[in-house]
Design a protein that fits this description.
Length: 145
C-alpha cells in the first residue's frame, strides 16, 4: 500500500477533529455574544453546565475525538512503520472513519442516542478487528534477525 492510501483515513480523522473544534468555537462565541452564558467565571474555569446544550454537545463530541480515535492513530503509525497495511486494513480504516464522521454529525446535531451509540459500537468493533488483524500479522510474521 502507498503512504497516501494509509494516511488518507488519518487525515480525514484529523479534519473531523478540527471541524468539530471550529464548530465548538463558533457555538461558544455565539452563546457568549447572545448573552446565553450567565456565569462567565464558570465558563472560564471549565464548568460545562453554564453553556447551552448545543455547546455542551459539541464540547463532548470534541472530547470524544481524543478517546477511541487515539487507538486508530496509534495503529495507523504502527501499520505504516511495520509495513503491514493491506487492502483490508484500508477498507476497515475508511469504515472506522465514516462511522466517526456520522457519529459526530449526530452528536453535534440531533444527538439521537440510539443511532449515535450504534455508530460508536460499529466503529469500536471495526477498530478491534483492525487491531486483531494487525496483531496476528505481527505474531505470524517470520522473525527478522
Amino acid at each position: 500500500m502507498t503512504y497516501a492510501a494509509i494516511l488518507m483515513p488519518v487525515f480525514a480523522m484529523v479534519l473531523l477533529t478540527f471541524a468539530v473544534l471550529i464548530r465548538l468555537g463558533v457555538l461558544r462565541w455565539r452563546a457568549v455574544k447572545a448573552g446565553l452564558v450567565a456565569d462567565r467565571e464558570g465558563a472560564v474555569t471549565g464548568d460545562e453546565r453554564v453553556w447551552p446544550v448545543a455547546v455542551r454537545q459539541a464540547s463532548s463530541c470534541f472530547r470524544n475525538q481524543f478517546e477511541v480515535p487515539v487507538l486508530f492513530y496509534v495503529l495507523s503509525v504502527l501499520v505504516l512503520v511495520t509495513r503491514k497495511a493491506d487492502f483490508l486494513y484500508i477498507v476497515l480504516a475508511w469504515i472506522f472513519v465514516a462511522s466517526r464522521w456520522v457519529h459526530a454529525g449526530i452528536h453535534c446535531g440531533p444527538n439521537l442516542v440510539g443511532p449515535r451509540f450504534s455508530l460508536f459500537f460499529v466503529g469500536v468493533l471495526v477498530l478491534m478487528a483492525m487491531w486483531l488483524l494487525f496483531a496476528l500479522s505481527i505474531l505470524v510474521a517470520p522473525i527478522v534477525p
